[in-house]
Write the structure tokens for this entry.
Amino acid sequence: MSKKPTILYVEDEDGVRTKLSKLLSHYSSELFIAEDGKVGLELFKKHSPDIILTDIKMPIMNGIDMVKAIKEINSEQHIVFTTAHSESEYLIDAIETHVDGYILKPISFQILKQKLEQITKQINIEKELLAQQTLMNEITQMLNLLIVLDNKNNIIYSNKNFLKFFNLIDIEQFNSEYKYISSVFVNYGDFFYPKNSDNWISEIKNLDDDQRVVSMIDELSEPQAFVLSIKEMDDTGHSIIIFTEITNITIKKNELQYKAYTDELTKIANRTFFEKELSKEFKKSYRDKKHLGIILFDIDHFKELNDIYGHKIGDEILIELATIVKQNISQNDIFARWCSEKFIQLLPKTSLEYTLLVAIRLKKLIENHKFKDDIKITCSFGIANINHKKTQDEILDEAEKALYKAKHTGRNKICSI
């Protein structure tokens, strides 16, 4: 069962704050209320709420300054802005804070409810994944299979669990069938497999702890996963190796990672996965001095489309859009749902000029496609490119601003900054 989140609500208008607080109390396990950003920041430091819902324009400290201060403490904090059309001068600054969303005033209870449920679901998945990872770390400390190798990597001792796993009578039987213990490792997927069997211990010691995972076939011919712990005895030259079985945890972890990194509606990658991959690709790009392109786009007039055809049709269009784009991009590109009707594509080793060509092709693909019930849509695009003088946040900001420019200069177009 999903747990209700703790929520911090920051709003300077008494009437609005009182009215919305009643609704928020139903969707939170604990609600903290502040009348300005300064009080909101102090409450955040004291209580570390799961979600922050805040107005932008407020006295003493506005919402943007409060959020910037909070992001310095916790860059992953879930935050939603509430804003009025009259506060458009704050919009660019608000975009740069990378919050989870914006809700226009007067606030629709239905839209707020959907946004809170979406963020709550993501928080619960993240907490469950963290709990599983913590459990996995605890279990890896428990003894499962144990062997002792001499300085030539020959097995000189094993516990009964090791012999039972391979259906062996004694160590001599194992040594007669296999030259090295690494000979029984399965070369598959992300599991460790040595390049040189007689030097496998040195190879695996150079890996991080979470990469020291091997697969072996048990007596029933079923593959099992193990984390390896290695302790070398300096005085004898012996190595003590413990194999801790994590098969079920690995399966569960993979399932949770899929949930945590996959958009539930469109089944493509979500923002969490994209930001993780962007961080890795950014480092590669900087190291190799290669370009890195970003295309950020969203559906034009999507609210009106929902109003006319209904949210069910709107959801089907989002699913179909995600599908046709994913089918028409490079396998090396990373494509994700950024939020609501907004999507993002990462193009490794791609110049701004080629990023533009890809965006042009996507724009034509979308505007020429007939969606559900022969509905036609268009999209606005913002493109950006890393030139090794920008930070990861700066390139995202640039793409956001380019999309904002396209939306406000006619839509159905491609812009860059």
